[in-house]
């Protein structure tokens, strides 16, 4: 298949795989660009809530709206919202209190961040965490 013309010579897709041929000569970026994958709705909900917390629009100690109301406002299912909230809990940004609701934690206080708690214990170090993460 012919895809370009350069330096007085026609190039085909097989030639473009040759390391000596520049991608711009071939007219294609073979292997440089990666496909764009759609973002999960729960990731979008998580990103939006996290940004509201980081920007101080939802302040530490403030109660989040009920899940049903938030899901309706964001046009997502309650299950999608719950997944996003679980991620916020995992990051230490919010806490759920049974029967009372979900509240924003003071994320600037490192005692509220699970990773900071783990690192402050004498049994674990950043190197331990990185060694665990590498095989994953």
* Helix and strand pattern: EEHHHHHEEHH
CATH class descriptor name of the largest domain: Mainly Alpha
Question: How many structurally independent domains?
Answer: 2
Strand content: 5-15%
Using the CA coordinates, give the radius of gyration.
24 Å
The named CATH superfamily of the largest domain: Winged helix-like DNA-binding domain superfamily/Winged helix DNA-binding domain
Describe the protein's architecture and organization.
- 43% of the residues lie in helices and 12% in strands.
- The protein is an alpha+beta fold and 136 residues long.
- It has two domains: 1-34, no CATH class; 41-112, Orthogonal Bundle (Arc Repressor Mutant, subunit A).
- The strands form two sheets. The chain has a two-stranded antiparallel ribbon. It has a two-stranded antiparallel ribbon with strand order 3-4.
- A hairpin with a 3-residue loop joins strand 3 and strand 4.
- Helix 3 packs across helix 5 (78-91) and helix 4 (67-74) crosses helix 5 (78-91).
- The relative contact order is 0.10.
- Residues 1-11 have low confidence and may be disordered.
Topology record:
Layout: E1 2-6, E2 9-12, H1 13-16, H2 23-26, H3 41-54, H4 67-74, H5 78-91, E3 94-97, E4 101-104, H6 114-120, H7 126-133
Antiparallel strand pairs: 1-2, 3-4
Helix pairs in contact: 3-5, 4-5
